[in-house]
Fold each of these.
Amino acid sequence: MRAHSSSMTRDILEHLAEGGKIMLGAFFPRGYSYTDPSRRVLGLDRRCRHHFTPKQQRSISSILSRLRKEGLVARDGTRKQSVWHITRRGHGHVQSLAEMAEVLPHHKQILPKKDGKVRIVIFDIPESERRKRAWLRAQLVACDFGQLQKSVWTGTRPIPETLIADIESLGLGSYIHVMGIGEKGTLVLKKLA
């Protein structure tokens, strides 16, 4: 998954999950006094909380295509008149993301300045800890690290101390290795924990 698309993927799935209200809206049209109470109860007049920038809108098509291959969304209609909707599997994915957000640390990292030194983060987190693995990937994206392979990431800024503390508190230190390239041709190995 590309670095910036992780949070967009979540936003798109949540947006489609909220989209079920559109169908209900057809049965309770806006502007009629007898439908107003039902619209309020069903939350049909609340504005969608997702606002996509023009740059993000250009990425949505490729993300939707990937989500379709993963079985999280489906498309009805022709390519030009597509109607996208979330699948049962997609709803489950959104629910697991919400549960993960409640359990795992989530705060905005204060990013150290880029210093031009390349850092490579390699991890081998067991499948039984997959939620923590997904959390770590999201944290690396937030720190401007890019993915080379599923478990190999690279960036040009130090890893924030708060992230290192969170990694330790989650018991992930023994699964993660950070390598810094000090000068061309040298590697400085650092193992967390």
Note: Residues 1-5 have pLDDT under 50 and may be disordered.
Amino acid sequence: MGINLQKGQKISLTKDNAGLGKVMVGLGWDAVKEKKGLLGGLFGGGAADIDCDASVFMLDDQDKMNHKKNIVYYGHLLSDCGSIKHMGDNLTGEGEGDDEQVMVNLSQVPENVKKLVFVVNIYNAKKRNQHFGMIENAFIRIVDMSTNQEIMKYNLSEEYGGKTALIAGEMYRHNGEWKFGALGEATTDDSLSTLARKYGL
């Protein structure tokens, strides 16, 4: 079993995992089950599926991105350096376990990349009138791919009603180690591009 983190906690990924190379970052969430009353039964429907998209921002030592190619997401699945690979978009969040996964080869992350920020936003949130208050059981976890053992997991248990984007956590270099910080910061950014503006794009 990995370490369960709370918001704001930080751990070293490499201190107790010497030679850590490839890791899988899994992100998951579930749509809150709606209780359908008589009107819901008569008129059908319910809300459209909530399409959450996980992405990675590759930041420099100033916490900035200098190019949109430094975002790995469903439209750019592999970083130019080859160290980060997004495994594809999950449109509904259905099913158990991870909804989206990102593979990171820590030994191949370029030296000028000091931090990897993992974010989740709701696709077309404003148009669909959706927000993270409609999501439950959100988490981010890291697995050592050489052993298939979970290193850590952070359950995002806060109430995020009205928020449309979530900065889940960050993996960063510090004194020769790779560390992870549990962030759990929610914003009202309604697209990946507006979220990216926080980091200089």
Note: The first strand starts at residue 3 and ends at 5.
